[in-house]
Design brief:
The protein is an alpha/beta fold and 337 residues long. The protein has 9 helices and 16 strands. Strands 1, 2, 3, 4, 5, 6, 7, 8 and 9 form a 9-stranded parallel beta sheet that branches. A 7-stranded antiparallel beta sheet has the order 10-11-12-16-13-14-15, covered by helices on one side. InterPro entries: CobW/HypB/UreG_nucleotide-bd (IPR003495), P-loop_NTPase (IPR027417), Zinc-reg_GTPase_activator (IPR051316).
Length: 337
């Protein structure tokens, strides 16, 4: 079979910026007769984003716990090649981890290996404008790499911003070295036409829905991994832990003999917001045999959404230190178990 000029887009954005929500929305607008595929990478091992996208109808390939930001990542090449061979899609969307450096991904996609196979289209970077004032975000090595590589900047969660935050976003875009298209999005609302925008050479222009800085690129990745099965009073859960120099994660896959109640879900949200080194929680929590909630919690917001049944609960948190990870692990397992 000949694979020829498959359009591919990289969708970046820091932790909690709304990448997965945007992709889910775009997958509802796939033109009739087309087949799209998604290659998704997460820092942790649980595979939360792949689980959240699985009911979209698109072919999903997960690379959990890996580093799509590394050119030498065999997992990236293997995952991408598998999508191309097995699906031969009409378009591929790539969602790197929120702390990924997309420069290497773009370089590999444009390498001789994929010449005439892939047609690299616009790169989109999601931003939560409220985080432009947070040194944890703008001081992270990956933040400006994601912005630099983007052709389109999308301010997600547009209804959450104050007038001053909107003004700050405009100033931020205007002072970038390379001009960018930019847009606002609410609840992941997106036009698939954004995927084909190319960066203008002379202006920063605002896309409607209908229509200089110093930073350090440090790509050292030393990962410590641990996984184990935990059984407490008949509750079977697999736990995964991982740390590198910038981020730590712990996740649980809890088998279908366990259900959460609303109080436990609210307790998790409250616990996260009280931890200063906490970055993000994502989860799919079974409340009963037929009710599941998606949850997404950051320091600035918490989001819960009722969805269809899944066979197991999944939960993953990201923190910036091992000490924070240990504190949250102990507290969360007291709530769960």
């Amino acid at each position: 079979m000949i694979y020829k000029n498959i359009p591919v887009n990289v969708i970046t954005g820091f932790l909690g910026s709304g990448k997965t929500t945007l992709i889910k929305n775009m997958l509802t607008k796939v033109p009739e007769g087309e087949s799209w595929a998604v290659l998704v990478n997460e820092f942790g091992e649980v595979g939360m984003d792949g689980a959240l996208l699985r009911d979209s109808g698109a072919a999903i390939k997960e690379v959990p716990g890996g580093c799509l930001c590394c050119v030498t990542s065999a997992a990236f090449s293997a995952g991408l090649n598998a999508l191309i061979r097995q699906v031969n899609p009409d378009r591929i969307l790539i969602e790197p981890t929120g702390i990924g450096h997309p420069a290497q991904i773009m370089a590999q996609l444009k390498s001789n290996l994929y010449e005439d196979v892939l047609d690299v289209k616009a790169s989109i970077c999601m931003l939560d404008v409220r985080n432009l004032q947070d040194p944890r975000y703008i001081g992270h090595p990956a933040f400006f790499d994601q912005v630099d590589q983007a052709d389109v900047l999308i301010a997600s969660k547009a209804d959450q911003y104050s007038e001053s935050e909107n003004e700050q976003f405009i100033r931020f875009v205007e002072q970038l070295k390379d001009p960018k298209k930019f847009a606002y999005s609410l609840n992941g609302e997106a036009s698939i036409s954004w995927l084909n925008y190319l960066r203008s050479s002379n202006d920063n222009s605002h896309i409607h829905l209908h229509s200089s800085h110093d930073h350090d690129h440090d790509h050292d990745h030393d990962h410590d991994h641990e996984s184990k099965i935990k059984v407490v009073e008949g509750v079977s859960a697999i736990t995964y832990e991982k740390c590198d120099k910038h981020l730590c994660s712990i996740g649980w896959i809890i088998k279908d003999n366990y259900v959460f109640d609303q109080f436990k879900a609210q307790s998790l949200a409250r616990l996260m917001r009280e931890e200063p080194d906490f970055w993000r929680l994502k989860g799919q929590l079974r409340l009963n045999a037929s009710t599941v909630i998606d949850c997404n919690i950051t320091q600035s917001e918490e989001f819960f959404n009722v969805k269809n049944e899944v066979s197991e609960s999944r939960l993953e948190i990201l923190t910036s230190t091992q000490e924070s990870l240990a504190r949250l692990k102990t507290a969360i397992e007291k709530i769960i178990f």
